Amino acid sequence: MNVTLTSLHYIYLMFIIVLIIAMAKKKDISLLCILGIFILGLTATGSVVKSTMGVFNSFVYAAKELMPTIFVISIITAMSTAMIASGINDEIIAPFKGIIKNYWIAYWLIGLIMMVLSWFFWPSPAVVLVGALFLPIAKKAGLPAIGLAITMNLFGNGIALSSDYIIQAAPKLTADAAGIPVSKVITASIPLEIVMGVTTTIVAFYLLRSEIKKGKSFNENKIYEKTNNVMLISSKNIRRFFAILILVLFALDIVVMYIYKLQGSDATALIGGTAIFILSLISLVSYKEKSLEKITENLVSGLQFGFKIFGIVIPIAAFFYLGDLPFNDIFGKILPAGSNGIVNDLGVALSNSVPLNAVVSSITLTVVGAITGLDGSGFSGISLAGSIAKIFSTALGGGVDTLTALGQIAGIWVGGGTIIPWAVIPVAAICNVDAFELAKRNIKPVVIGLAVTTIVAMFII
Predict the structure, then answer these.
(1) Over the stretch 102-133, which tens digit does the pLDDT of each residue have?
(2) pLDDT tens column, 147-167
(3) Residue 256 maps to a domain
(4) Is 161 part of a structural domain of the chain?
(5) Is the pTM of this model over 0.85?
(6) Measured between alpha carbons, how far is 160 from 115 in angstroms, rounded to an integer?
(7) How far apart are CA 419 and CA 444, in angstroms?
(8) From its phi and psi, is residue 433 left (phi > 0), alpha (psi between -120 and 50) or beta?
(9) DSSP assignment of 43-71, as one string?
(10) Cα separations (Å) of 400 from 41, 119, 396?
């Protein structure tokens, strides 16, 4: 598998290194991303005008890609505000108060719920359901909002999305590229997923527990808290009716998703539409003659929150989207023929430059997977991981299934929403925590997990 690297590849790589250093120093990187987009455009087109236009068009592309997530987070925020003001939220969380008694139980139980839902429907809609319902419970049990975001990330965007045992979109992509049955990738991934999942979640919990025991102060979520003790719906029976109705409606959504095999954006749209109707019903009962104005007011407030959270990330997402094939859409067909995007090309170049044995092959697949995950999608480069695994296994005389599964795990854990700031936004937004802070806290557990998993893969091969 040959690939031609151009000046664009090296410039992009240089900016990635600069951005990583800047993030490590807790610096804002929006200006660096804008500069990176402009220089890439100038190098590609040789035109200041086209490069300037490309900066704006890359912003538009990023906003278009993020818009469904922005809207569903905004709508859920508006719905949650109405639920809390009316007192309905108190009725919903009441049954869990006797079960989730401390932050230990909150961390592990909510994480497992997130994992199971994400297996069936992927993390996007699961984030909305789990975050909106369990954030108040988790906080009352002593688990800070950042802790809830961490467990939702690791169990949902990490374990569930990288294994994808139910929907099987990820193993299908990697298996096809490697030329092996999907069942072989799934089987090979089980021991690796167990190692990766157990390692990351335990390390993350240990680090979080240390901070809690030291009495560290966390920036707590304020979105989902009442400003006073007055409940707009005074009747407990009516509040309980709405609590049951809301749970039934979301449960029906889950059933519909399963029956009609709704995934990703379709599943998120169903959740979002349901939330709009719930918001409307609650407002009609709670605000009565002022309901029309209050519905609009809550929606506007939710949208303000959504764009405030996502606005700072659009320049960053715009730069990293250029690492994939959208580069050609924004600046014209500039990339070399046969290119699969700048990031994937860099991954191929790395795989072509290393000697082959079980140790080096395992490390290379992990690194290649991680590199292709830098665009924040998690899925764009896993076919490449399968292709490289096939090449390496031919030289090694076997191990294609394990190498394929390893590349898939690395690519999705990095890019699918655990340590890339612009990919963790849905969880960060629903928990109202800083996306960069969440990504930073996930880095150590994920890196340790990948290291341990890679070592295990060496012995399996």
Answers:
(1) 999 999 999 999 998 888 767 877 887 788 77
(2) 999 999 999 999 999 998 887
(3) yes
(4) yes
(5) no
(6) 5
(7) 9
(8) beta
(9) HHH--HHHHHHHHHHHHHHHHHHHHHHHH
(10) 38, 24, 9
